[in-house]
């Protein structure tokens, strides 16, 4: 694991402890991450379903703890307990469980733009966790400024309920180049754009903060990935922070996406495009593709504008809960009070 070098604007006064969270970068490796107010060591006891224990230990004292659990069995269920000590004093303790294999039926949650309101973000996370999702996806803008450590502390104080769910995120414009985004969150591949698969769903996370034109490395990677999809893929889901369609103004990134990315979506029959950036909920269908904006995770809400052609739009804090069974992907948009505000389902186009 790379040594974390943080670029910080230190507005931290008495930073509290937050819980561990899980990221899964593939290759049978899970990283457990946590923070302590005082520098301390890092240890983890991992117990598989047969009762076999493995111990992981990092003697170097740090505030930011990342323990890689490697050589895992994808068919095993694991329990873990992590601790941090300094001068024989225990500063931190947390536990949870996970399995690398997620088989259908399963559910997962989407939300985004969590950056500005710790209280709302915390409530949204608690509401999501009631449904015990296998994994959670953030559409980006998870903090207000990537380089302010206090923002990251509040983010993890909000997400500490997800001790059994893997966490994925797109890079938002507020994370800029993602220096601390990459330090805190261990994702597959490039980490700023990447893919993962559960069941018959291929998830492709794009980075709309960097080039995605026809000549870019990201565009070529994306096209090759679409071309190489296996016959087991029932749904292709693209996640990116900036939406190619919205019911607001037309700006430069929206024009560029319609020139470069949207033609790929349509040519290769992408099923669902998930975005954020606009701080409300919007759902729109065009040329067989469902476009969904979920940006009600905590940032100041944007006004909802009624525009012809949009299936649904409203301005309120919310998340989207998806359920996947073979051949079908169902979704419910649920607001912060637990009310269902929108429902839809997609059927697989694959033969």
UniProtKB/TrEMBL annotation:
Keyword Signal: yes
Pfam families noted in UniProt: Metallophos
Residue stretches making up the Calcineurin-like phosphoesterase domain: 107-281
Entry-linked InterPro entries: Calcineurin-like_PHP, Metallo-depent_PP-like, PAPs-like, Purple_acid_Pase-like_N
GO MF assignments: acid phosphatase activity; metal ion binding
Keyword Transferase: no
Highest taxon of the lineage: Bacteria
Sections of the chain in a coiled coil: none
Keyword line: Signal
UniProt-recorded name of the protein: Calcineurin-like phosphoesterase domain-containing protein
Organism lineage: Bacteria, Thermotogati, Thermotogota, Thermotogae, Kosmotogales
């Amino acid at each position: 694991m790379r040594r974390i070098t943080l670029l910080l604007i230190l507005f931290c006064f008495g930073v509290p402890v937050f819980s561990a969270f899980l990221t899964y970068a593939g290759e049978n490796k899970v990283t457990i991450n946590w923070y302590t107010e005082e520098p301390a060591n890092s240890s983890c006891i991992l117990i598989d379903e047969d009762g076999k224990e493995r111990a992981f230990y990092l003697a170097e004292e740090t505030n930011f703890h990342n323990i890689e659990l490697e050589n895992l069995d994808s068919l095993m269920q694991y329990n873990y307990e992590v601790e941090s000590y300094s001068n024989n004093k225990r500063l931190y303790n947390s536990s949870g469980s996970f399995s690398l294999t997620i088989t259908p039926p399963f559910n997962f949650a989407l939300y985004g733009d969590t950056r500005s309101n710790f209280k709302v973000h915390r409530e949204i996370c608690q509401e999501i966790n009631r449904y015990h999702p296998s994994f959670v996806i953030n559409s980006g803008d998870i903090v207000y400024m990537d380089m302010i450590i206090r923002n990251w502390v509040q983010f993890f104080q909000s997400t500490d309920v997800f001790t059994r769910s893997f966490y994925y995120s797109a890079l938002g414009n507020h994370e800029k180049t993602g220096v601390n985004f990459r330090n805190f969150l261990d994702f597959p591949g490039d980490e700023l754009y990447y893919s993962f698969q559960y069941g018959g769903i291929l998830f492709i996370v794009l980075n709309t903060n960097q080039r995605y034109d026809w000549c870019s490395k990201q565009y070529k990677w994306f096209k090759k990935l679409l071309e190489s999809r296996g016959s087991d893929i029932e749904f292709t889901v693209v996640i990116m922070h900036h939406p190619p369609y919205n019911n607001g103004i037309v700006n430069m990134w929206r024009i560029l996406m319609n020139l470069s990315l949207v033609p790929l979506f349509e040519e290769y029959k992408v099923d669902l495009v998930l975005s954020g950036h606009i701080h409300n909920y919007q759902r729109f269908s065009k040329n067989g593709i469902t476009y969904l904006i979920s940006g009600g995770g905590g940032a100041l809400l944007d006004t909802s504008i009624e525009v012809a052609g949009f299936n649904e739009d409203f301005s309120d804090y919310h998340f989207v809960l998806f359920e996947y069974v073979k051949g079908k992907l169902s979704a419910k948009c649920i607001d912060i009070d637990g009310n269902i505000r929108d429902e839809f389902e997609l059927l697989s186009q694959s033969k």
